[in-house]
Write a structure and sequence with these properties.
Blueprint lengths: L1 E6 L2 E6 L45 E11 L4 E10 L14 E9 L1 E3 L9 E3 L4 E4 L8 E2 L4 E8 L2
Antiparallel strand pairs: 1-2, 3-4, 4-10, 5-8, 5-10, 6-7, 6-9
Length: 156
Amino acid sequence: MLVPHFISGKHYAGILSLWPFSDEAQPATGGDVLIGKEHKEFEAVNLEEGWHTPPGYPEGIEQKILAGALDETRKAGSRTRLLRFKPGIFTTKPFLHEYWEEVYLVSGDLIVGNDEHGRHGEKFAPHTYACRPPGVPHGPFKSETGCLLLEIHYFE
């Protein structure tokens, strides 16, 4: 089932499932980027199951993919995920990636710019938002009370 997507005024075709990415999956218009996500209509999100630690993250930070997939090798796709930090967990180095990232702090606290021991940084409260273009270093991150983030990642 093809699902149309509009990004920056261009039309792209999505397919029902993009993971793993198929060599047969082709954009609707030659040379454009494929941005595919499943069509979902107000499903209940089970916050008790389906979490796992993303590669490169410490234990205590977990993600739950809500829709889509991101292929960093082919620089294609779009992903919406929840990311949660358990209380006291922190990362030690800044992150840098080649995709756009939008982040909304749903609940808890998020400290940005802590040192390698989890000290210092700027504290943010719920209902704050960030939008980062590719190639922008950000972090490290910490949460004192734990937090829940809604993130959208995509390639141009």
